[in-house]
Structure formats: C-alpha cells, structure tokens
Amino acid sequence: MKINKIHLIFIILLVFISNLSLALSQLQQNTDYELEVTQITVNNEPTEPQKGAIVIASTDSLSIDYKLLEPVNAKKTDFFYRLTLTNGNDTSTSNSGFPTVKYNNLMEGRYFIIISAFAIREKWEVKPYKLQIIVDNKLAELWKKNKEIEKKLLAKQKQLLNQNRKSEDFYAHLAEFLQTPIGLALLILILILISFFTFYMVYRKKINQIKRVQKLIEKRGKNMANSELAPITQEEYEKLIAENANLKAEMSSMKGQIDAMSVRSNELASRNKELEAKIELLSNSKSDLEELAKQKDDLFTIVIHDIKNPAAIIKNLVDLLRSYDLTANEQQEIIEDIAETTLKIVQLSQEVTKILTLESSIMVLNLEPSPIKYVIDDVIIRNKPDASRKRMSLFAEVDSNLPDLEIDSAKIDEVLDNLISNAIKFTQEGGSIRVKAYKELKDVIVEVSDNGLGLSEEDVAKAFRRGQKLSNKPTGGETSTGIGLWIVKKIVDAHHGKVWIKSVLGKGSTFAFSIPQKQSGLKE
Fold this sequence. Notes:
Blueprint lengths: L4 H21 L2 E2 L4 E9 L2 E3 L5 E4 L4 E9 L10 E7 L4 E6 L3 E5 L4 E11 L4 E2 L3 E7 L1 H42 L2 H46 L7 H90 L4 H33 L7 E3 L1 H18 L3 E6 L6 E3 L1 H17 L6 E9 L2 E8 L6 H6 L21 H11 L3 E7 L3 E9 L8
Parallel strand pairs: 1-10, 4-11, 13-15
Antiparallel strand pairs: 2-3, 2-5, 5-8, 6-7, 6-9, 9-10, 9-11, 12-14, 15-16, 16-18, 17-18
C-alpha cells in the first residue's frame, strides 16, 4: 500500500511527540537558571498582578512576555518554553521557542498559566512560573474604574508637584546657569568686583583719615611758623602719635586683606580652570557615549543581517518540505538542516544577550588561585576537533614554574576559547596554532599565535571594538559576530590586565594578554 504525503507527515509527528514526551519525563530541575516574566499587558497596556492574580474581562486580550535568566558563564544551550493553561477541568500544554504568549476571548472563570523552560539535550528544566488569571466581566469593570480613579489621583498629584516646582524654577535655572562656563565666569567676575569695591571703600576711608591728619599737621606747622608762642601741646602730640599708630595698624590690616583677596582670586581662577577641564571631560564623555551608541546600532544591524540569511534558508527548506513528495531520508536531511540553521540563530541571539549583560551590569569575578595551565589545556582539548577538521596543529608551550593566578577561571576560559577559535577560523587548512604562557615581572603573559591571514594596521586599530568585523573572512565558511575580541578585552580589563596584537598581513597574528599574579590591593 502506498503511503501518501499526509500519512507520512502524520507518522513523523506521532514519532516526534512520543520521543518528546519521553524526554520531558526524564528532565531534572536546574537551579542555575531562572524564569522571569518581564511584562504583562492587557489590551496592549502594561499591568501588574494584584495579590498574585490578573483580573480581565472575557473580551480582553492578554499578553505575557518572559525570558530565561542564564548564568554569565553558562554553556550555549538550546532550550524551549513549555506553556500550560488550566482552569481545573480543561488543560492545554504547548511548547514554544518564542518568549511571549497571547490569549484572547477566554471564558469567565479562574485560570492558571504555568510557564517553564527545558533543554532536552542537557535533560534539565527550570522551576516554573505560575500566574493566576481571573476572567470576570463585572470584577474587571470595577478594576478598570479603580485604575481610572488612580490615574486621576496621580494626575492631580503631578499637577500639585508642578505648581510647587514653578516656585523653585528660578533658583533651579539660576543654579543650572551658574554651572555653565559663562555662568561660572560671570559669578567669578561679580565676586571680584564686590571684593575690589569693598577694598576701595575701606581704602578711601583710610586715605581720608590720612589726609585729615596731614592737614592738621600742616595747620599746626603754619601756626608754629607764624607764631613762636603757639607750640604743640603734650596732649596734641600724644593724640597725633596715637592716630599715627592706629593708621599703621589699619594699613597693615588692609595689606593682609589685600593679600587674602589675592589668594582668594587665585583660588577662584584655579577652580575655574578645574571646572573648564571637567566641562571638557564631560564633552569628551558625551562624544564617547555617542560613539558607543553608534557602535551598538551598527552591531544590531550586523546581527539582523546575519539572522536574515539563516531565516531565509529555513523558509526555503520548509517550502521544499511542503512542496515535494520526498523520501524519508530526504525529509530527515532537510529537518537536520533546519535544526542546524535554527541553532545558528539561537547562537546569535545568545551573543546579543551576552553583550547586553556585559553592558548593563558591573562584571562580578569569582577570584580563586588557579593554575593557568589547566585552563589552557581544557580549552585546547575542546578546540582540537575543529582544528583537526582543517588539518591544523594546535599545541601549547607553558612554563613549568608559573605561579597560580587569582582569576575567574570560567571567564579566562572564555577569553582563551575566543582567541583560539578565532585563530582556527582565520587560518588556512594545514596551518599551525601555538598557545604560549610565561612569566614576566609580576604578570603572566599568554599568547595565541597562528600563521594565518594576518591583519592590516587598520584592522589592528579597531580589533577590540564591539561589533567590529575585520576585513578577513573565515577560511572554512565559519560564522563571526564581531564581538569575541570585545568580550576578551572586557574580561581582561576586569582582571586589571592588558590585551594587544602583533600581526603581519598574510603571515599570521599573535593575540596576547597579561594578568597580574595577585588581584588583591589593585584599584578598580
């Protein structure tokens, strides 16, 4: 009896479902991963659970976004989400690779949505996230009215805050203005003018006193010249002596005030220079942030382009699977091609997740004394199969007297894996790759050298920038996201180390990094 295409597809689905059910029953719970619900929207409006439940009407549309939180040093894993909707009587379960689910026109009643994630190859699943949904039209109507009242109260509160802020706007604007270079210069000028005006008034008063004394002396001198019978009395003489002493004291005090004003003026000028330097630093930081934003846009443009090609391949393979009467072996080959292409898309998405994780948080290192030789040996063993497929020699030269390093072994493993896998990608078949480690002063140097394509000076200058794909192409058709070297630099910087490249175009490259023996006592 001839089996038509529909019967064949039905049989394949039955076999797939039975194998999947068997695999799911053998999963073990993995506590290293955690499932997080990132957003819940009702009719495209974000909402939060109240007392552990979401209240909606039967006409509402409910959407739930979620994601799997992976450890920073987790191995690349293919996983799926399992979604279960139950109301006590009926239960429906589905598996999906998408981090979102949407429900429409649910009948009135109480439901539970259980979201989990599992990996069939690694045989693990995570603790599920459980959410209660109450579909009740009357309760949902009351809930909407309550939200409207809350919005009105928030709007009124915001209005009152705006009224209070208006009274503070003048001082806030004045403070902002004084923080600008022009405002700061104007403030310094006003302080100098006030200081000199005060000095001028005090100085003028003392000059007038001196003039009065001089006139008194001149008058007394004329009287003595006109009449020998009008000598200066002892009382007048003592008065003149006292006024002269007071004038000397006041002149000394004024000199001290002038010196103090000069010092203060110098301090203000120095402060002005410091503020100008900070303003220039802020301007440079702004330029750096704009450059980082541009690099991020370029990176995601590259990722979208890289995802588009395998997505098109998947579509063509599916069309081929649906359009022709194929044998079981041909169908199996197409399914394997689809799985392999899908894995590339998953790997790209995991690379993007890794970028966002490194950017959005401070890198936390699990520092322990570790022999660098063990890390090098593990990475070489893991990359030997790829090197063998291209008939390459991959070996290590590690000094026997190297001290243990205070490092995060998992992250240094990632550094070496990136450098060695890059060397394999960009070296021709039959090439040679050497990993060398030796001590230099208080650091340990690790070098990964190859006799591959080499880099131009322009490529060397931009090699460690995020998302920068170099001009050379992988020799075996491998994929490259352009972030491996950026991740290398981030990890080495976190270990207070340095990275560098020595390369000759067409003759090979050496990628190297240094790590201090001790991390304790080093500035962050």
